[in-house]
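Hi everyone,

Forwarding the result from last night's run.
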Amino acid sequence: MLRTFAVLAATASLLAPTVAVGGAGSAGAQPAPTEPAPAACTFELTAPSVVNVSGTNVVTATVTTRACDGAVAYRTTACIQMQGASGPGQCAHGNGINPAQVFFQPYRPGANYTSTGRGCASKGNPPQPYCQENGPFSATLWEPRFSPLAARASVESTGSSTAAAPAFEGVGMDTNNVVWIVIAAVVAIIVIGVIVFLARRARNQRRAQEADRIREEVHHDSRRVQRQASIVEETEAKARAAQAEAEAKAAEAARLAETASSRRDALNSSQQHLDSRLEHADTLDPRRTDDDKGGAVAPDPKNPVRDPENPRRDGTAETMRPDVRTRSH
């Protein structure tokens, strides 16, 4: 259904009379007149006023769509023409319910400007275009710093004098709206600044508390680490003492091993000497013959015969005693 209305609105905009932009005289910027039609939508036109756009003063007027009685607005037009200008006026268009706002240049202080407007809507089945003319509103405009109510502003209408009231009222309402917008912006900036300040202070307090907590934990942990360091140093001292004792014992063991080795060599030499002497005694003994070497010889109590398998033992079963004089303590 919306698509149908859009198609019908486009068709109506093509069939509707166009607004003349150029032309000579005071009617150069006014929309073309149309036949009276039933009211479909209400359109509001503002009087010419001076605004500053990017550092440049321009004259502006706006056509706005208000209430609609079962109709669909599809086009608005706003035009401005400077009285006495040789060139054409300037117009701006708005599609649908969007307002049409025109910006006229150049702006000349003290010149008289006239604004006109037109709004079109479609209504019925099949839809029919209905257009409404607005204005004209005329005003002599000065610099924005001068109040048009107190200075030289005058609003004229082609009809009765009561038609100029909306122009003055619109200028006052625009000024009040700007003032209230500025006040609201300043208040919003102040509120935002206070919120940012409070949030930053709360954040700084939280960070300070967190830093104090971390310092307290570090202090507590540092004492524990110091106790552990004392224990580690004591353990290292014990380890060094044990290592020194082990090295001393190892040196003592090496010395004892060397002593035992030298004594073992001396013992072997003594044993060999004893064996050679025993063999020499056996050679000198007349009682031992070659035939008796394989048999036993009767022991002589005065000259006992040593056992060849154990030369340290003789017939009296003498026990050898260890030499304790050279024993190392």
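Residues 1-31, 145-173, 312-322 have pLDDT under 50 and may be disordered.

Cheers,
N.
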